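Annotated sample (chain length 323).
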Amino acid sequence: MTQQYGVPSSRRDFLKASCSALGAAAFTGQLQEGSVMANAALVPDGDIDAHSHIWTRDIEHYPLAKGQTLDDLAPSSFTAEELLELARPLGVGRVVLIQHKPYHGLDNSYITDSIAKYPGVFSAVACIDAEGPHPDAEMVKLKAQGVRGFRILASEGGASRWAHSDGMRTMWDAAARENLAMCPLIDASALPLVDEMCRAFPKTPVVIDHFARIGVDGVIRDSDLQALADLAQYPTVHVKISAYYALGRKQSPYTDLIPMIERMLSAYGAERLMWASDSPYQIVPPHNYADSLALIRDHMPGLTATQKDWLLKKTAEKVYFSV
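Output written by the structure step:
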């Protein structure tokens, strides 16, 4: 059944406008008072957030891309420490960091340094140049620093289709050998690109971000859901059930997205789905981190305890925290 709602502005524009209008206090008020970092070096219990961005104002050590300044950051700061202070009181002990290419470009050092600083707490998805001379060597290098996946866009690779890109084919082949996930950030219209690559590289782990952004324009189309469900035929494909603030009605408690989650459960099983927040975008008022968790924890009574464990922890653990 098709659901139709309003078309949103871009995510970054919305974030900047919200932070400006509400002020830093409204944003940071979601962080807990005091520090919860004392035991950050221990491998924690709790759930896993499979997708969060971080960035820092320390541009001396981590320069911003494309000549940006501190005034371009929205929110003005979202560090590894701020993320953990937000997540840990809500029972999330580990996080998969996603390189924020708009701010830090292809310099993945802030996420890899955060992995080193807090052993066992973070894994990461990096961004590299598929058209570079040796993307496979770069993947192996980053794997040694704790990276377990690589974000790709439909426009990357230097060809109209990934299957026609030497660089993309090199990356997918290396990902199969090294057990690294290819992580497409795509719309549903690009799902055929994933299908082509899965046919060519059936052993490559794949994690599709944010339901392939189905419903980002307010319309949840059955044809898009079927295209995403069809990729379940490939055993190595996984889907992040995430970014609730951006999909469907875009209103907490996000229960309009439950049929989409149930459709993916039928296709993939809980063992190939993983919850993620997409912070800090998920915590721009009126949205918050707790409501994202609550959709899985509290608003889907038909889920078994075992299913919840896979959605909230074990799938992400299998893909991103395995040796």
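Annotation: The first helix runs from residue 11 to 28.
Annotation: The mean pLDDT is 89.
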